[in-house]
Amino acid sequence: MNNIWTIAKREYDNYFNSPLAYVVMLAILLPLGIYFTLILLFSSQNAFMGGGAAPDTLQINWLFVFLMVFLAPAITMRLISDEARMGTLELMLTAPVKDFEFVAGKWLGALMFVLSTALVTLVFPLVLNNFVSPGIDWMMVLSSYIGLILVSSAMLALGVGISAIFNNQFAAFFVTLGLFFFLWFFINMPVNLLPTGGEILNYLSLSYHFQQNINQGNMTLAGIVYYLSLTALGLFIGTTAIEIRRWR
Amino acid sequence: MIKVSGLTKDYGARRAIHNLSFDAKQGEIVGFLGPNGAGKTTTMRILTGYMPPSDGEAMVAGYDVVEESLEVRKRVGYLPETVPLYTDMVVFDYLKYMGDLRRLPDVEDRVDEVLDRVGLLDRAQGFIGNLSKGMRQRVGLAQALLHQPEVLILDEPTIGLDPGQVVEIRELIREIGKEKTVLLSTHLLNEAQNLCDRVLIINKGKIVAEDTTENLQARLLGAERVVVKVRGDGDQLAETIKEVKGVRKIETLEDGAVEFEFASGKDLRPEVAKQVIKSGYDLLELRPLGMSLEEIFLELTSSDKKK
User: Fold this and answer.
1) CA atoms of B109 and B145, how far apart (whole Å)
2) Tally of helices (H runs) and strands (E runs) in chain A
3) Boundaries of every domain in chain A
4) Separation CA A63–CA A68 (nearest Å)
5) Exposed, middle or buried, A112 (CB in 10 Å: 0-12/13-18/19+)?
6) For labelling alongside B57, which of A13, A192, B161, B215 has CA 20 to 30 A away?
7) Integer angstrom CA distances of residue B291 from B214, B216, B225, B299
8) Is the distance from CB of B86 to CB of B94 less than 8 angstroms?
9) Nearest CA in chain A to B65
10) What ipTM did this prediction achieve?
11) B168 vs A70: CA distance, rounded Å
12) Minimal Cα–Cα distance from B165 to chain A, Å?
């Protein structure tokens, strides 16, 4: 466990040495800020006209997760592939570190980076709380953030796993992006076309549990299990890919 | 400390090393000598727990490299051939990171200590990416020494260094080799000759010779060759030397010196000296000609017939 933390900490610090991290943060926070401003604007207009529901920040967290479909691959692409390219993987694999610890450390470092970005977005509910009476539903906000962490965790684990397969970070990027596109947009498309059994496709969709349940304050066990399973799957893929590298 | 028996590694259809067996004791510097692609790096990677062998077994510091890989890795310091480093890290932070992964107590003091030892203390706060090749090599060596390993495995440790640094690093290795086990690979024969207690010559994945450098020379030659020089032209010198019993293969060189050889074991130099002086020559030089490791190496690796 100590090793996971050591690796995660270095990886986290390392993000802020590269311009990529700032680009990713900007690419998340800027659209979110604009979206929040628009929400405030429209709801104040509606309130002035004497109608409309009280605004909430759930849509902002949805946008965060949606942007992660494109940005998570960029966050994870070089984590292991670049070590393989530079040869530093040989150092890690001859240090007294288990393969799983190495992969999990990389994943945790990436997750910590995303959580730091998410921490900044807490400013939106805090601000909104001042505008709405009698205040916003903090349990909804909590549920939404738990969902955000779960989805990010799953995406980053899959990204790290795919990064362990490739020596080229761009190959890792595009494969990860392709997988997320499939899991987010396409996997449950045929739900309405199928006469029966379409539900299972919803269950497998990356967006469904967050969008339909967790982000609505509805912490379903199915959703939690789904995202945690994907996280475990990603870390398993990564560990196996490292083991295969050893045998080659 | 290192015990290897029947080690074999296949990369697909290609057999990189074949049935390798050797050992190395504590306080011994063993040189691994061979042409490129002979299997030196492969063997080292197996010994450091980077990859498992296809067959055979290897024990390092009393642990099996496959079954107890983590225990082996704790006790081995390894400098890979390409000296991989995190170029975007500061030297000190990098070594501290590697020390943290090994859970060293008082890691910062230890990093300072090891930086001092490799002579990089003044570059501790510099980025690794800005260092010269020789300095990176020393950072790599510092990383290998960090945890005071029982076994040090160095893949081409002096490659890319300038002559002054080569001397320093060799001195350092020699010092470490007094207490620890060092296995180093090199294709520089003089390095093996002046650094190693014992040399393993490996070619096409097989060990073709294993001995001390002195013994290797003697064994391969089977005879000792000596050159004699006298003042003047020494035109009758060859005839004079021929009179000594046991001398053979006499050759007169261009500058008038004479080379001859005798079966190793009984030294004929005193007899030859007496004979030369008795005949009225002023003896200037009587020098044994060792076969250089270069010649041994070529002999062993160029011909397929085994000694």
Assistant:
1) 14
2) 12, 0
3) 2-247
4) 8
5) middle
6) B215
7) 9, 9, 9, 11
8) yes
9) A94
10) 0.89
11) 51
12) 24
Contact A242, B47 (CB under 8 A): no
Tell me which amino acid residue B111 is. V
DSSP lists the bridge partners of residue A20 as none
Cβ-contact B139, B85 below 8 angstroms: yes
* Digit-coded pLDDT (tens) for B93-103: 999 999 999 99
Task: Name the more confident of B223 and A55.
Answer: A55
Place of tokens 């009280």: A54
Q: What is the largest CA-CA distance in chain A?
A: 69
By C-alpha distance, the chain B residue nearest A1 is B101
| B147-192 pLDDT per residue, tens | 999 999 999 888 877 888 888 888 888 988 888 999 999 877 778 8
Residue written as tokens 């967006």? A207
CB-based contacts of A156, cutoff 8 Å, min separation 6: A72, A75, A76, A107, A110, A111, A114, A234
* A95, closest residue in chain B (CA to CA): B73
- Residue A196 neighbours by CB distance under 10 Å: 6
Whose tokens are 């067996």? That residue is B21
Residue for token pair 């004079």: B240
Tokens of B175: 């010092």
pTM for the model: 0.85
Enumerate chain B positions whose Cβ falls within 8 A of a Cβ in A: 11, 45, 48-52, 70, 73-74, 76, 78, 80, 82, 84-89, 97-98, 100-103, 143
Flag whether pLDDT at B290 surpasses 70.
no
Indicate whether A50 pLDDT > 70: yes
**Dist CA B145 CA B148 (whole Å):** 5
Which one, of A162, A61, A179, lies nearest residue A120 by Cα?
A61
Contact A96 B101 (CB under 8 A): yes
If one compares B19 and B220, the residue with the highest pLDDT of the two is: B19
Contact A90 B52 (CB under 8 A): no
Interhelix angle A99-121/A2-15, rounded to 10 degrees, is: 50
Specify the length of chain B in residues.
307
Domains of chain B in sequence order: 2-211 (3.40.50.300), 218-294 (3.30.70.100)
